[in-house]
Amino acid sequence: MTPYDDVPYANRPYAQTHPDHLAVLGRLHGLDPPPVASARVLDLGASEGGNLIPMALTLPDARFTGVELAATPVQRGNQTVRDLGLTNVRLVQMDLLDIDTAFGEFDYIVAHGLYAWTPEPVREKILAIARANLSPRGIAFVSYNAYPGGHLRRHLRNAMLLHIGDASDPAARVERAREMLRLLGAGRPEPSILHDAVAREAQEVLKQSDSSLFHDYLSGVYAPCSLRDFLAHATRHDLRYLTDAAVLDTWNVRLAPETIAEVDRIAAGDRVLHEQYFDLLRMRAFRQTLLCRNNIAVDAQWKPERAVELYVSTRSEHTGPMQFTAPGGVAMSSANTAVVEYLRTLVREWPQRRLIGHVDAPLALELFRSGIVDLHTCLGPAKSAGDRPLASLLARYEAAHGLPLISTLDHRALSNDDPSAREFLLLLDGTRNRAALAAASGLDQQQVEARLDRMSRLALLIS
């Protein structure tokens, strides 16, 4: 038994780990990554497959393998795989220390939320797998708690562990951790900058779910590292730094121009040193590093021609005459009518994707840097509502089983806490036209259209 058998970890899709996103970043940095449609993907620490199963459903010709030490989530995940009738995904209960080259070669290897929470031999093995089992043009994703922000999280962790004492029951540990966070979050009547930072971070951690608090903050191991130290470790395994999966964290640094210029001067073309200075200046606490084999040349600069024949889409909303806002809150205003019309078109066409040509490649690339659009290597399955609307099989399955999250076709998660929305989603099995949907749901035609439009904009419909 492991802690993940005792306390299930929130299982969900993570868009930043999707092989399509990794392939886009690889291509922009000059690589020729393996085609996503037929890719072989390995997920280390896969839990019950909440990240892999949605990929497998939308990429039927690709192959997916998940490895997880805890038996209980693997059993649950494999039951879901059987229920959905998927044949291109498998979840294996095993110790990743037992993986060797005979386990297979993979085009994309994902280790999300694993490296900084495991003992040193496991951290060593994660990178060994990323080297020994990665295909020649493959990309590995490794996320980890990072310094300097990790120092603040370590302070909160130490305070919580002190307050927990020798309590061993998971529920009791979480409740006592929350007690300590509430104390820290209360702050002081006249706080210093340092006390204010601690209080704000405690308030943010209090928003985490019980499972996230238990596993991410109270785990047996907490080993943040700096980017430079992580990449030194990767280099020992003949792996090279490609980029970070979080595009906004790479490009939208939000520092004064003179500060950026000074970092440029200090780094003198050393890309890793440049990134490390930015981490220090922004108190960065988490990284999602992409690696490739050391014999592959990586171009730090994105060139517009590499975006040609990719696809572009946007989940942003048109929030003002010249303003667009992405779901995460990133906003962009432009007085350039060509830019505004381009974005308006993408907003209208969502959830479908538009092929990028030579003319719009520079603009699409700049909007991707800004976090306003997404880039893709292939067309996605999400569509607008047809005559007989059909929702994703996985979304209907998750809704029917009352799971806390619903997986979208663009590899994100939605809260499953609206009974009326859940009931309407279950009606979208491709057998009902709009009149039948109105009769079955008790909604009028206008309400049905509004619900279908929302389902479409949430990337839940395939026709």
Written account of the structure:
This protein is an alpha/beta fold. The chain folds into 4 domains: 3-147 and 224-293, Rossmann fold (3-Layer(aba) Sandwich), CATH 3.40.50.150; 149-217, no CATH class; 304-376; 393-457, no CATH class. The protein is 43% helix and 16% strand. It is built from 19 helices and 15 strands. It has helices at residues 3-6, 19-28, 52-58, 71-84, 120-132, 149-164, 170-186, 193-206, 210-217, 227-236, 247-251, 257-267, 271-282, 337-349, 361-369, 393-400, 419-427, 434-441, 445-457; strands at 40-44, 63-68, 89-93, 106-111, 134-145, 239-244, 286-293, 311-313, 317-320, 323-325, 331-333, 354-355, 374-376, 405-407, 413-415. Helix 7 (170-186) packs antiparallel against helix 8, helix 12 (257-267) packs antiparallel against helix 13 (271-282) and helix 16 (393-400) crosses helix 17. The radius of gyration is 23 Å and the shape is globular. The two termini are 43 Å apart.
